[in-house]
Automatic annotation (TrEMBL):
It holds the Pfam family Abhydrolase_1. Keywords: Endoplasmic reticulum, Hydrolase, Membrane, Transmembrane, Transmembrane helix. Gene3D superfamilies: alpha/beta hydrolase. The lineage of its organism: Eukaryota, Metazoa, Chordata, Craniata, Vertebrata. It is found in: Endoplasmic reticulum membrane. GO terms for biological process: acylglycerol catabolic process. It is a multi-pass membrane protein. One of its GO terms (molecular function) is monoacylglycerol lipase activity. This is Mesoderm specific transcript.
Amino acid sequence: MREWWIHVGLICIPLVAVYLHIPPPQLSPALQKWQSAGQLFHFRGRGIFYRDSYGALGSSDVVILLHGFPTSSYDWNKIWEPLTQRFHRVIALDFLGFGFSDKPRPHRYSIFEQASVVEALVAHLGLSNQRVNLVSHDYGDTVALELLYRSDQNRTGHLTLNSLCLSNGGIFPETHYPRLMQRLLKDSSILSPLLMRLTNFMIFQKGIGEVFGPYTQPTDTEFWDMWTSLRYNDGNLALDSILQYINQRLKHRERWVGALTSTVVPLHMIYGPLDPVNPYPQFIRLYHHTSSSISFNQLLG
């Protein structure tokens, strides 16, 4: 009996070792094109990827796009061209730890740092005195609320905001229900390294697919591009640190929800009610109770 288990171990250990060291997948042509159209700037010694396109003539409007978790600026690829027909400049970045930006580890990722990354990019592009429009999603919503807070408080280096459009983000901790894997990664310090290494494309696809509505499911190619951008530079191994943003939302609720309710910056919310992380009707009720003066658009799914 002992010899049988020894043989199994001799077979399984090398297989597990190989599995844990599978190289990241190659970028698709679409992701390669997106990457080649972008640039890097450096924030505190870290490379930050961004895209900056000039668009509509006769317009001076600038829009900055802030992506969600755990994806990248490539989230915006389908609306990039339409936006360039409306805005003079369309800008998107990969937050630190995401997409084609550097993914340091160990590192204490925070919403405050990501907001500073955005401010540094705006300064780098010479737009510090320009009024900008922010469009954000998910994780990007919380970064946007920190930027809003800094703007309202007239903090040094703050953005001058013309408008802010939020979409399906856990801006209220009390109506935010993270998925099981998110909860395990953010709270299980012992299990997190193993979980991050054992997660494969099928697990990722199932988890991400659950937060989309039945009529908006990504294609297999789109799922693969999300997975590829996550695996780029071993970004999957930084997820536990990045996910501390969920705890930060709770800790700094007064600061960020307070900015939402007290600002004079024009705000708009786009909400898909089939969101299991910020579910209907709990999110809607709290949103209208907290911020009844903010314009609102509810999607069909």
